[in-house]
Design a protein that fits this description.
This protein is mostly helical. The chain is built from nine helices and no strands. The protein has helices spanning about 5-30, 35-55, 55-75, 80-95, 105-125, 130-145, 155-170, 180-185, 200-205.
């Protein structure tokens, strides 16, 4: 169970972080109608990435399946056209054209959720550190402020909670780079207790 805790901790932090980025962006683009499917997508994505990080064989199988599925979607199911329309819809929405994005609301919301999910998983990796994630979250908050969408700042609270958890986890060594290598070598040696019959204890007493 102890070996699983760091992976579960990272999954929770990544999920909350992605939620704190995706929800305000979806709200700014008037895509909150797709919020629940996007939350479910984030949960599934974090579960798959956690399983892949815990087992290399599962990770390799998940990678092959993802690449194959993505290729089929893009090449055989018209995914390229859908992605292009979603990007154009976002650009038009940000330019002030209100009627374009609702036509591709579902694919656009899914695409944004996947991007934020993968980004947040990378930002919660052991070597990523605290400040890159903080910078991304502050950038989203600044954009909301500058575009007068301050009512959506409430949706960034999961991201703030994720950063707080990441900071606390790093403080106790749960996501410290190299911690896995330390555990493989047997962990940190516990403090040794001596009693009066221990020869090492007698030697120490003689040194004093």
């Amino acid at each position: 169970m102890e070996k699983v805790k760091p992976f579960l901790s990272r999954a929770l932090v990544a999920f909350l972080f992605a939620l704190g980025l995706a929800l305000p962006v979806l709200g700014a683009l008037n895509l909150m109608g797709a919020a629940l499917p996007c939350v479910a997508l984030l949960i599934g994505l974090c579960a798959v990435l956690t399983a892949a990080s815990m087992n290399r064989k599962v990770g390799l199988a998940a990678l092959i399946a993802s690449v194959a599925g993505l290729a089929i979607y893009l090449l055989a199911l018209g995914g390229i056209q859908t992605v292009r329309e979603a990007i154009i819809g976002v650009i038009l929405q940000l330019s002030g054209v209100q009627g374009a994005l609702p036509m591709v609301a579902g694919p656009c919301a899914i695409l944004l959720t996947l991007i934020f999910g993968l980004l947040c998983w990378a930002l919660t990796s052991p070597g990523a550190g605290f400040y890159p994630g903080l910078a991304v979250l502050l950038l989203v908050m600044m954009i909301l402020w500058l575009t007068s969408r301050t009512n959506l700042l409430l949706y960034t609270l999961p991201g703030l909670a994720a950063l707080r958890l990441q900071r606390a986890a790093a403080a106790v060594g749960a996501v410290v780079p190299g911690w896995a290598a330390i555990e493989e070598l047997g962990g940190v040696a516990p403090e040794r207790e001596f009693d009066n019959d221990d020869p090492d204890y007698a030697a120490l007493q003689g040194m004093e």
